[in-house]
Amino acid sequence: MNTNRLLGMFSDGQTAIAGWMSIDSAYAAELVGCSGFDAVVIDCQHGMAGHPQMVAMLQALAHTPAVPLVRVSQNNLAEINRALDAGAWGVICPLVNTAAEALAFGRACRYPLDGAQGDRSFGPARGLLVGGASYPQDANANILALAMIETQAGLDAVAAIAAVPQIDGLFIGPSDLGIALGLGPAASYEHPLLADAIRRIQEACKAAGKMVGIWCGSAEMARAMQAQGMQLVAPGHDAIWLKAEIARRLAVLRGPG
Ligand code: 3PY
Ligand code: MG
Predict the structure, then answer these.
(1) d(CA 222, CA 224)
(2) Percent of the chain beyond pLDDT 70?
(3) What is the DSSP-derived secondary structure letter of residue 15?
(4) Does the first or last residue of the chain, that is N or C, have fewer Cβ atoms within 10 Å of its Cβ?
């Protein structure tokens, strides 16, 4: 089987940089995948893509160097299985609040093969195309399962969530976490309450021997998080980049002078 390059990057101590797709376009995914990112996340929670667009985006990403991941809309066995069967190399699950939810999520990503505890049903249609003939045997070790910590309940249970064996790591949602901490969705990562929560999640991952990543509103935040030891950072998403560049160009054309 082709292996998941992100796992090699994490074990080598490198930070993977992920693009993040909210626009439901195969062409846009292909473009972002060819732009130098280590991974590209198709966001099926807050982004526009439904299942058919997600499949087309995974197909487009298959010929790019970026590892394709999917953020599912919820912790649901069928939805997680469909993303993996369509060729995602990993799943990010939003709003994981308890160890039991983390276990359900992690089990959804693993086949009950060779003694593994999992609930993934067999039928890796595109998985076989992107992973090769040995995909069924090798998928458990290569698929990334990342549970999002972004609520007070998730933060309270972070050590138990990180310890769930079927989970590879945690992914921090600073906007929802900012709301949970009473700071609002645009809280700065430098605010002491949010900064403490982020560090707490990182420490739980370190203690459990798991990787940790974070969504970032800006490249500057992503840079700071990389320096702080995050192994996966996403410096914003496609709609943010598009709007920012449009604003910059219009300011050049319409601004003073
Ligand atoms: C959050 O910051 O809450 C996220 O889910 C990022 O996409
Ligand atoms: Mg969120």
Answers:
(1) 5
(2) 100
(3) P
(4) C
User: What CATH number is attached to the domain comprising 45?
Assistant: 3.20.20.60
CA dihedral 90, 50, 108, 62 (to 10 degrees): -30
The reply to whether ligand 1 has any atom less than 6 angstroms from the CB of 238 is no
Whether the CB of 174 sits within 6 Å of ligand 1: yes
Predicted confidence (pLDDT) per residue in 165-199, tens digit? 999 999 999 999 999 999 999 999 999 999 999 99
Interval between CA 253 and ligand 1 midpoint (Å): 33
**Nearest bound ligand to CA 20?**
1
Q: Whose CA is nearest to atom 6 of ligand 1?
A: 173
The one-letter amino acid code at 101 reads: E
